[in-house]
Input
Amino acid sequence: MKRIFDFSAALILLMITALPIAVIAVWVKFTSPGPAIYWSDRVGRNNIIFRMPKFRTMKSSSPEVATHLLENVERYLTPLGAFLRKTSLDELPQLWSVLKGDMSFVGPRPALFNQDDLIKLRTEKGISGLIPGITGWAQINGRDDISIPVKVSYEEYYLKNKSFAFDLKILWRTFFKVLKKEGVAH
Output
């Protein structure tokens, strides 16, 4: 049922957001050099690497590390980067990953390929068996404001309590978190 929901909802949302996606892509392209879409190597289900698309919010010369590890993140952001991140519009291309089945709407956020501490802890707790999501229980309970161990504890709770109803609750709460721009550090 989850896969049917993910596929159907992603297809509908891609049709609805096609024009905004095109406008944002052009906007990104014309405000900074480099491609509009950034394809990031991410850790998927069972620790298999997949390519996740996002609108590019960082300069092309930025190091490939989690933003919380960068000093003075603002110097790496593109002119639209902060806006796209605060509004979560940079996530729209991930609908493609949901459509393909690399991601779900709800699950743990996919780790960067080099976030060894997060990957190790998720593997130990069995969380690596979940399909990563655009949003998740940890996302709505802190997002960028929580440490990796706390994040993994939320993800473990999700693993033990996952259900379609819980997913709908997370999606509902995500909607309001995005509107309020809560928990976004950069």
User: Anything to note?
Assistant: Residues 164-180 form the longest helix (17 residues).
